[in-house]
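pasting input
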Amino acid sequence: MSDNGREAALYLDDLVVGARFRSGEFVLEEASLKAFAAQFDPQPFHLDDEAARQTLFGGLAASGWHTAAITMRLLVTSGMPLAGGLIGAGGEVDWPRPTRAGDILRVESCIQAITPSRSRPDRGIVALESLTLNQRDEVVQRLLAKLVVFRRPA
Amino acid sequence: MSDNGREAALYLDDLVVGARFRSGEFVLEEASLKAFAAQFDPQPFHLDDEAARQTLFGGLAASGWHTAAITMRLLVTSGMPLAGGLIGAGGEVDWPRPTRAGDILRVESCIQAITPSRSRPDRGIVALESLTLNQRDEVVQRLLAKLVVFRRPA
């Protein structure tokens, strides 16, 4: 697994199933956690620690969509250096455990499948599994994304 | 389909497959689109209209994760009045077309399946399809979410 932040951008031609990529880290501050929740997911367990203790989360927890957004930031800035950028057509996301204030997140990705487009020979779809882990190496999000990746121009 | 913002919170016992829910609306301002992208998805097609014209998006487009976050806001504030809140265990998300600056978004949801928990009789998993539509009734996101929903306390 390499720190690929310094590597050149990759085309579809450069990718192989099983290739692994590792992002930098992101520290989730409590103020950011609450600010995202206030804007996009205003529920007590994302806004107030005391109220959150009475819920399934057992304490203040980040919105899953905040974890997803941080994951995207890590992928874009250091986790997956694709030529043409990271363009997702969709995917599956699961949050096996909560992200907490103070967590230090990173993303470890692995290419699961590469499917050249039949109708558009300049591109393909890459299935990328990205696990978002905290500082205890616990998985807080599993994302299986379908990415549009371009071939190297002739 | 009802404007359920004024209805009482719903328990698992109140839900039936096929039930539909409709959210209020959210106007995506260009400044918000760019601010989200700068924070979580800093790529040219989400930040700069001129640069975006040269890409697959054909012009400035919101991050898919921004569309997802706005969808969550609409569901939480007006789209799905669940007792105990909207707790997602995960789901599948697709973005069939871009969300643009100035778009007016709303969410239309339909219960696809209800699965009582075998190990925890106080709850179940609800599969909810939520379509996020723009002002031209075009689907910009399809989300199939697995929600944890509680039974009415005895």
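fyi The domain at 2-150 of chain B is CATH 3.10.129.10 (Thiol Ester Dehydrase; Chain A).
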